[in-house]
Write a structure and sequence with these properties.
alpha/beta, single chain
Amino acid sequence: MLTQRLYNTGQVCCASKRFLVHEDVAEEFTKKVVEKIDTLKQGMPLEEDTQIGCLISEKAAKTVEEQIQLTVQQGGKIVLGGGRDGAFIEPTVIVDVPKTADVAIDMEIFGPGGAHHHLQDRRGGHRDSQRLEVRSVQLHLLGRPEDLREVRLRA
């Protein structure tokens, strides 16, 4: 998940943009994601040990910063990152994103981080994914061994 979301500092059109996490595992999921992202080194892209670079421009970073702020105004909570320094955006994790928030529907944060909201059941994940204004959706159902599969909902 982190590789898909943070590759090229999140500036990939097909990167995972939103995560629907079952409430039974949401706290553990968030903790592990934050712990992993917190170990990544942000720096200049040409430095060998840099794992998260800057965005393509300061203008792009300002747009991402505005999207993060909007998501918070709409009810999301930042648990990691959220800051900007020039063209750099701190890797950001936003939780408790309401289903009505722009980022939960059609806004794509084109930078390092992700937003997720909690589900009460798997059917909720299918229902929520149907209302997204995107071309395709993939659900990763994790838990019991028989649930370790990927379901492609539409192309």
